[in-house]
Write a structure and sequence with these properties.
The chain is built from four helices and eight strands, in the order ββααβββαβαββ. The chain is of the alpha+beta class. It has one domain (about 1-160): Aminopeptidase (3-Layer(aba) Sandwich). A five-stranded antiparallel beta sheet has the order 1-2-3-4-5, sandwiched between helices. Strands 6-8-7 form a three-stranded antiparallel beta sheet. The chain is globular.
């Protein structure tokens, strides 16, 4: 557990009851646009992450005043079209009322640190094109555009300095 000012940066495993809120965020932000995906399916996936501390997939969360304000995940092979890209950061989400306060920076930095502590030196992510400049500030660089019938995204890479 890490405290930065009055924000607590920890893992979903420390607050597994927050899985419902995370699933609701993920469903409303992304999964509701996918065919045949229910909020219950998203909750099942998030709940899997809620028990992991040092095994992937896992979730990092930020809490402020005992309230969940953001989440990010460290996971395997997020995009099935790129199986050679093994470790991913995904699901970076900050509650709407808390955006613009540096919370995503805390989340991404903590996921990068966790990855390094687990011996991972490369992290991939996929993001909408309007978020590319944001992730560049975290040390990611663009690899290529990826698209399928539903989504167009930029694939980016971060490499730990070893």
């Amino acid at each position: 557990m890490c405290l930065r000012g009055y924000m607590e940066i920890t893992q979903l495993a420390d607050y597994p009851y927050e899985a419902q809120k995370v699933a609701s965020w993920y469903y409303n932000e992304w999964a509701c646009h996918a065919p045949n995906v229910s909020e219950a399916m998203v909750l099942e996936n998030v709940t899997e992450h809620a028990s992991n501390r040092n095994d992937i997939p896992l979730s990092i969360i930020v809490r402020e005043n005992n309230q969940l304000v953001g989440v990010a995940e460290l996971k395997y092979r997020e995009n099935k079209n790129y199986p050679e890209y093994v470790h991913w950061i995904g699901g970076v989400f900050v509650e709407l009322n808390n955006r613009g306060r540096g919370i995503s920076n805390l989340l991404v930095s903590e996921v990068q640190s966790k990855a390094v502590s687990l011996g991972i030196d490369k992290l991939y992510l996929q993001c909408e094109n309007h978020n590319v400049s944001l992730y560049k500030t975290y040390g990611f660089h663009e690899l290529h555009q990826a698209s399928d019938d539903e989504l167009s995204a930029m694939i980016m890479l971060w490499e730990a300095h070893t």
